[in-house]
Amino acid sequence: MAWTSPTLEDLTAKLSVKETEAFRASADYQGEPVKRILEMTADVFRDALRTNGRVRLSPVAHSIPGGCMSYAMDYALYDVLTRLDKVVNEDRRKKREAAERYLERVAKGDLTPESYGEEDTEVTGGPAAQLVGAAPNRVTAHGLQGF
Question: What would the pLDDT profile of 65-102 be if each residue is shown by its tens digit?
Fold first, then answer.
């Protein structure tokens, strides 16, 4: 998946019908506060990715791997809904906690999302392998060469 910056569309895709109605009735809908919450959420996820140490970050500010987006939106929605003074239900709290556990696992290195610039191949659906060098060592009938 590609790295992208979270959008309002990503956020609203995770809302229930009731939450969507409340969100769209808010003055903050499509406003600067929601945009800032999305940016801060992306930065929290980028910090976990940076802590992991095995993930190459995108040079684009506030962008995260597509595979992290669902957890990031669960994380952000809690902040958005509390900002709108909406009662946050137990299901939403559990999703926020799951997102926090995901962040902890990423930071520890238990999970490693895709690095920026990794390409998926059509055949495997996974990262394409790249040969970065070849060792001159080889085994021949006359012995070991280069060891």
Answer: 999 999 999 999 999 888 877 778 899 999 999 999 99
Look up tokens 């992290």; give the residue: 68
Rounded Cα distance, 113 and 95, in Å: 19
Amino acid at 117: G
| Amino acid letter, residue 40 | M
Please answer whether residues 52 and 109 qualify as being in contact, where contact means their C-beta atoms are separated by less than 8 angstroms: yes
Look at residue 17 in the predicted model and tell me its pLDDT: 84
Q: Which residues contact 113 (CB under 8 A, 6 or more apart)?
A: 49, 55, 65, 67, 68, 106
Cα–Cα distance, 63 to 22 (Å, whole number): 27
Backbone φ and ψ for 64, nearest 5 degrees, come out as -135, 160
| Domain-wise residue ranges, the chain | 3-119
Within 10 A of 40 (CB to CB), how many other CB atoms are there?
Answer: 14
Spatial separation of the C-alpha atoms in residues 22 and 29, rounded to whole Å: 10
